[in-house]
């Protein structure tokens, strides 16, 4: 579950494993340096429609919550 994955998020992030497990994480990029500067990568966690549709203002479908998350 997202809760279990997110439990050790700080430890895994320190080890270079970047998990995005909540709606709040959508706007938090992973910053990776390359030869041109920093690259921001935005991860989208698995979004269970029943759990996040109210937070995102979306209908009850995977497509709707994903579209709403991509628009944040």
Can you put this structure into words, describing what you see?
There is one protein chain. This protein is of the alpha+beta class. It has one domain (2-70). Helices cover 40% and strands 14% of the residues. The protein is built from four helices and two strands. The protein has a two-stranded antiparallel ribbon with strand order 1-2. Strand 1 and strand 2 (37-41) form a beta hairpin. Helix 3 packs across helix 4 (62-70). It is flat, with a radius of gyration of 14 Å. It starts with a helix and ends with a helix. The model has no long low-confidence stretch (mean pLDDT 87).
Question: Could you give the topology of this structure?
Answer:
Blueprint: H1 2-7, H2 9-14, E1 30-34, E2 37-41, H3 49-56, H4 62-70
Helix pairs in contact: 3-4
Summarize this entry quickly.
With 72 residues, this protein is an alpha+beta fold. The chain has four helices and two strands; from the N terminus they run ααββαα. The longest helix is centred in the C-terminal third of the chain and has 9 residues, at 62-70.
């Amino acid at each position: 579950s997202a809760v279990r994955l997110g439990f050790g998020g700080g430890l895994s992030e320190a080890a270079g494993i970047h998990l995005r497990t909540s709606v709040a994480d959508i706007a938090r990029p992973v910053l990776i340096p390359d030869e041109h500067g920093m690259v921001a990568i935005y991860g989208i966690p698995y979004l269970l429609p029943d759990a996040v549709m109210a937070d995102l203002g979306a209908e009850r479908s995977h497509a709707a919550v994903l579209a709403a998350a991509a628009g944040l």
